[in-house]
Amino acid sequence: MRIELTQQSDLEVNQLSAADLTPAMAARYLSGKIHLRSFWELLRRYYPGGDLRDRVIRAVGQPGDDPKSTARRVRNWEQGKNAPTSREDLFRIAFALSLNEEEASGLLGMCTDYGIHYRNGRELTYAYCLRRGVSYEQAAELYASLPDPDRSAAGKPARFSDTQQIVSVFAGVQDDREFIRLYEEYLDSFGTLHQRAWNYFDRFFQALVSPDGEERYSIDKAAQTYLSLHMPSGSRRQEYTLIQRMLKQGWPNATKLKNICAHREDVPRKLLLLLYIITENVLDDAYDELDETYLSPEELFEEHWWRVNLMLRECGMPTLDPRNAYDWLVLYSLNSGVGQDEAMGERMEAVIAALFPGETGREIT
């Protein structure tokens, strides 16, 4: 499989695959030619009505908010300057536009890494109410009437830790009475963190902190050794381009890793993809078909593409999107080995160095 860099309707350039580009060419493509998928574009696809902006403004505006400020915030979303990051706002928008569960989950995933989290009591309730076609106000009222999982299930062993088991249990619920009964029955299974994503993270990260099976790196050393990839540190952003800001935002550091290891934070999608690239999904000495020499470069890429998307789906995250800047960089990195000996992480690092030449101290040509 060869990933085409261009959308024929958007750009009149040669049809090259990501594997054919040097890092500098890839950086230039990301800097000026990629057609990004925007939040408002996705809303338009879900809801083509002419009153889209008005519906979104009414949905996210709360009592006491300055109407002008709310309108300005929505206008910024429409113009592509930023996108909402509050999951509650995104649920309000989903209800206001009468989206179904799948559409609402796609909206959440695009803006916050994760789709609907069915082991989160609030989001499970919202999913059920989206299925029923009721309003956001009715959904919030139903959730407010339910017991708090954090208080009610404290200290109890969870019946389920797999989100798909919860999805299966609640898939056929038809009315509030049955939903409330099941909600109370499975209260001990709810949680706010994504266990499947953490399991993937732990497997990848353990391969980095114990690279030879004996020496064990500290989290700080592992972050500096493997995950920096010449990405500039620090919080300043104003002088960066949109693409630079998008790639730099949320880049993992040692503090983030420590919080994730301690189960204080969820695993970001960007980090999970980065760990796959760095480890190349090689976690032990077991046989893997990817080691076979009979596989062509295209077959190797397709297998990695399939495995990455499987991992993302299992974690409740959106699959790879070539119109997302970071995902495009991941796809470019997965093409390593096509006539070259470089590792995936080296391929990604070279593009980042080309995108931030003044920061990294070298420019790729």
Task: Name some characteristics of this structure.
365 residues; mainly alpha; 20 helices; 0% strand; globular; disordered N terminus
Task: Describe the structure concisely.
With 365 residues, the chain is mainly alpha-helical. It folds into two domains: 39-189, no CATH class; 195-360, no CATH class. It is built from 20 helices and no strands.
Explain this structure to me?
The protein has 365 residues and is an all-alpha fold. The protein has two domains: 39-189, no CATH class; 195-360, no CATH class. Helices cover 54% and strands 0% of the residues. The protein contains 20 helices and no strands. The chain has helices spanning 23-32, 39-46, 52-60, 67-78, 87-96, 101-112, 121-132, 136-144, 149-152, 163-170, 176-185, 195-209, 219-227, 242-248, 254-261, 269-279, 297-314, 325-334, 344-355, 357-360. Helix 2 (39-46) runs antiparallel to helix 6 (101-112). The longest helix is centred in the last third of the chain and has 18 residues, at 297-314. It is globular and about 60 Å long. The chain starts with 22 loop residues before the first helix and ends in a 5-residue tail after the last helix. The relative contact order is 0.12. Residues 1-16 and 360-365 have low confidence and may be disordered.
